[in-house]
Amino acid sequence: MSYWLYYWPSIPGRGEFVRLALEDAGAPYVDVGRDQGATAVAQIMRNGEHFAPPILADESESVSHVAHILAWVSRPLELAPVDARDFRRMHQMQLTVTDFVAEIHDTHHPLGPSLYYDEQKEVAARRSAVFISDRLPLFLDYFERVLTDNPDSGGWAIGHRCTTLDLSLFHVMRGLRYAFPNALAELETPALDDLTRRIARRRRIADYLDSERCIDFNEDGVFRRYPELDRPDR
């Protein structure tokens, strides 16, 4: 089965969660935004079915929202736990990742995406300080427990094999290392660090990260490096 991914062509953003699943599974797909430009991404939203990308389509339907997309494709891509209860738990935790990513985004755009970062720098600094001291360790501690509470799994978050949730945590940790390297260095996340290293070594993921298909983090996406929002350098 072939897929068409609709997402903006110049940022990894939320589309990267979907790209990683497709790449890890070796699934054939067209990255429409990169192939045809942002106009093609905007076009699919004009029919009223989807509010915003990422949107993933196959020959029969199209689906939007990261957690919804990953729940849809995780089984055919063999990136879902076998047990039905574990599948529901995976989706539940993927929704928590969605909450986490929204809070990360709001560190640099606390007043919303309609304003430029320079128009909300003061409140962004306040928001980031609270995020770093409170919300960041809260979310990371939760996902550390998720991994350590599954001790016989081989280091996966749910079940006994890599799932879309593991790939999403990999992307979040890479993004946080880009956006908040100083703050992250102050926190102990051994299970998440191990997961990140192991996924980076997976053959298809390693090939993808080393390819032109992989877009570098930049200051237009969800994860942005503004040093003034991070902990000061030691």
Description of the structure:
The chain is mainly alpha-helical. It folds into 2 domains: 3-73, 3-Layer(aba) Sandwich (Glutaredoxin); 84-229, Glutathione S-transferase Yfyf (Class Pi), Chain A, domain 2 (Up-down Bundle). The protein contains 10 helices and 4 strands; from the N terminus they run E-H-E-H-H-E-E-H-H-H-H-H-H-H. The protein has helices spanning 15-25, 32-36, 38-44, 66-73, 84-108, 121-148, 164-179, 181-185, 190-201, 203-209, and strands spanning 3-6, 29-31, 55-57, 62-64. It is globular and about 50 Å long.
Which descriptors would you attach to this protein?
234 residues, Glutaredoxin, Glutathione S-transferase Yfyf (Class Pi), Chain A, domain 2, 2 domains
What is the CATH architecture descriptor of the largest domain? Up-down Bundle
Helix content: 40-55%
Order of helices and strands: EHEHHEEHHHHHHH
Sketch the major β-sheet: 4 strands, mixed
Structural class: mainly alpha
Strand order of the largest sheet: 2-1-3-4
Number of domains: 2
Number of strands: 4
Q: Which fold name fills CATH's third level, the topology of the largest domain?
A: Glutathione S-transferase Yfyf (Class Pi), Chain A, domain 2
Task: Give me the Rg, rounded.
Answer: 18 Å
Q: What kind of assembly state do the chains in view correspond to?
A: single chain
- The CATH class name of the largest domain reads Mainly Alpha
* Overall average residue pLDDT: 95
Q: β content, as a range?
A: 5-15%
**What's the end-to-end separation, in Å?**
50 Å
Uncertain residue segments: none
Shape verdict: globular
Helical segment count: 10
